[in-house]
Specification:
Blueprint: E1 2-6, H1 8-11, H2 18-25, E2 28-33, H3 36-52, E3 57-61, H4 68-72, H5 82-94, E4 100-107, H6 111-115, H7 117-134, E5 138-143, H8 146-149, H9 153-156, E6 162-164, H10 171-179, E7 184-188, H11 197-205, E8 211-213, H12 233-246, H13 254-269
Parallel strand pairs: 1-2, 2-3, 3-4, 4-5, 5-6, 6-7, 7-8
Helix pairs in contact: 5-7, 11-12, 12-13
Length: 272
């Protein structure tokens, strides 16, 4: 299986044997981080996976849009300033240590985040320029903010790939991005199992060669669970395959979808 978006460092708080489970299930993943401690941990796992010939970990880094209110306050809660975070992003990119810039984007879900929209735009623009400079894919976090993405389509289409983590838009918006030349991939997690109507419709209708699977571990648990983990991927994959079969789309069996999403995953992140 492949997991296009997870937080391995954060998952440790819930599951100490998370890396053992990843290896046991043979899951390749892209791990997002927003500070050096997290990134260093992910990079260590990535190097060990290469040494052991195990399924790879691809390292991503960005300042999460939910950090933006804290940056307004001077970074007192996160312990990270906007300037130091952007400097770290620049260094990691220049040193060739990133597989993707992410997750970055816009989160306008709460009044607090909405009040920091301007600084989110500034951070996103910096991340986008870094990705363009180093020819890196981007992983986007977008909540109640798809209208903020389309004005950047002209630049996004110059990137090797753009992954929409937990795709928040409609199938029509996804198709529109593709038509605008954006090499967009749409990642789905447990929301398809939670009666999220737009996610269900998008997972059923968007092209199979644009679909990715994710856990967002530990942050998108299935109903009745405390956290999400690599074990959830089979259920997510089976659900999407059933949705596509019902819609008479181009991937109707779980195994076929699993194989297609693996191809898509490596199209984005490359191979070690």
């Amino acid at each position: 299986m492949t997991d296009a978006h997870c937080h391995l460092w954060d998952l440790l708080e819930y599951q100490k044997d998370a890396e053992e489970e990843r290896l046991k299930t043979g899951t390749a993943c892209a791990a997002s981080s927003w500070n050096l401690e997290q990134f260093t941990y992910h990079e260590g796992l990535a190097k060990k996976a290469v040494e052991d010939g195990a399924q790879p970990v691809f390292c991503c880094f960005a300042l999460h849009p939910q950090l933006s209110p804290d940056f307004i306050r001077g970074g007192y809660n996160s312990g990270l300033s906007m300037a130091s975070g952007l400097d770290l992003l620049s260094s990691l990119s220049a040193e060739g240590r990133l597989s993707a810039v992410g997750e970055t984007g816009f989160d306008l879900y709460t009044e607090e985040y909405l009040s920091a929209e301007k600084i989110q735009e500034e951070i996103f623009a910096c991340h986008l320029e870094t990705a363009l400079k180093h020819n890196l894919p981007m992983v986007l976090h977008v909540r109640r903010a798809m209208h903020r993405i389309f004005p950047f389509a002209g630049k996004l289409k110059k990137l090797p790939a753009v992954v929409f983590h937990s795709w928040p838009g409609t199938a029509g918006e996804g198709e529109s991005l593709i038509k605008r030349g954006v090499n967009a991939f749409f990642s789905f997690g447990s929301v398809v199992l939670k009666n999220h109507k737009e996610a269900i419709a998008s997972a059923a209708l968007l092209p199979a060669d644009r679909i990715l699977l994710e856990t967002d571990a530990p942050y998108q648990p299935l109903r009745g669970k405390e956290f999400s983990s690599f074990r959830d991927l089979n259920d997510i994959c089976s659900c999407i395959a059933a949705l596509r079969k019902k819609a008479s789309s181009d991937c109707g069996e779980a195994k076929e979808l699993e194989e297609q999403t693996e191809v898509n995953f490596y199209r984005v992140f490359g191979r070690v």
